[in-house]
Amino acid sequence: MSFSRSRCVSGLFTSAVTLALFVSGAALNYFGLNYSGDESASGMKIHPYVVVTLICMLVLSVSIGRSHSKISDRRFRVPTICSVVVIGILIFRSMGSGRQSLGFAVDTLVSALWAAAIVPFLNERTARRVWALGFAFVLVECTMAMTEVVTRIEFIPIDTWYGGYFRATALHGHPLNNALVLVTVAVSLQWSATRRTSVVIFLLTIGALSAFGARGALAVYLLTNAIWFIRFGLQSARRMSIVLMGIPIILTILGWVLLSGAFGDRIANVGAYDDSSGVRLQSIQMLQGLNWGNLIAGTDPDQVLRIMENANVGVIENFLVAYIFMFGLACTLLLFLCFWASGKGVSRLWNHGSGGTVYAIFTVFVATAMTNNSLVTKTPALYLCFVFAWAAAYIRHSHKRPASKMRSLEERLHVGG
């Protein structure tokens, strides 16, 4: 029986996505593996989905029989080089004065670039499997979140206090991490789903985001869907009539979900501006206390702690500000350049139309990520963003092309591997 590289990589990658979606760091901590702590079982500091993704990279990088290495392929080479650059930045910053704690970055940043290197060599069947996994995740994640709020019981409890407000922890532990992951997956699924399925995803996601008390993520998600809804209505008079009739219904449902407290009393009882909102503004204002040298090259962790104490800020609730403190503006821009180049490579798989899907999903992702500091912790959010942006774009493209032309598309994507 001959070895099929494409089947091997497809199976491994599907397993990696499953682990990233359903086996969170919070779950590993809960079952005693101490994934995020100072001590852990051997090998468990790196999440299993990262290990499986690395194996996929190794399989693609070697020549096996008639199947040649993908290293010479630009779609594989660019993200791989970018991952090496990011690893170099991490090593450089961890060896500097004060030594930055950057243990989160392999799972959060490097793994996403490896995903970008792998997806160009996967086929439509894998894309649809990934889509189905994402839909199953939305069903499980949202059901867990809303059930937790109703019962006031967390399935995977975490050691974080939110004052008098109960916030669901669902699959991914911290509510804001859950919100970032959920919005990323939900928006990607909606982009390539049927209208009825998209409505189901929308309603479930709204309920879950309310349960997480994630106001920033909720605002970004609602704005995204509002733009889609208006765009849908502008396509014809018939569709506009549907929009006009649907707006009062949607507003009524949203008003009840957000104000009744049925799926989260924090949003129902907290105003638009409170201490949490103030911390986000203070996080940006803290950059004003840096001199040009620290702003460009990064700041000593002890100095960051002093700045936070002076500003009375416990957590920097903005990942971009935290990156500038940790890496400096120069290395932060280099990081963004690496991810932009890798995302551009994924979007170039499609000449017209669907390539924009990748950029749109990343825009929503960044807007949501700016409302919290999840990307400064171990999270599969960015990894899943690359994966589901690719899957959504692939499926949208397959809908636009006649079935007779799909073979040529797969040949261009080197599916045969």
Automatic annotation (TrEMBL):
Keywords: Membrane, Transmembrane, Transmembrane helix
Transmembrane parts of this sequence: 12-31, 46-64, 76-96, 102-123, 130-147, 199-230, 242-263, 320-342, 349-369, 381-397
Protein origin, superkingdom: Bacteria
InterPro entries, per the entry: VpsF-like
Protein name (Swiss-Prot/TrEMBL): O-antigen ligase
Keyword Transmembrane found: yes
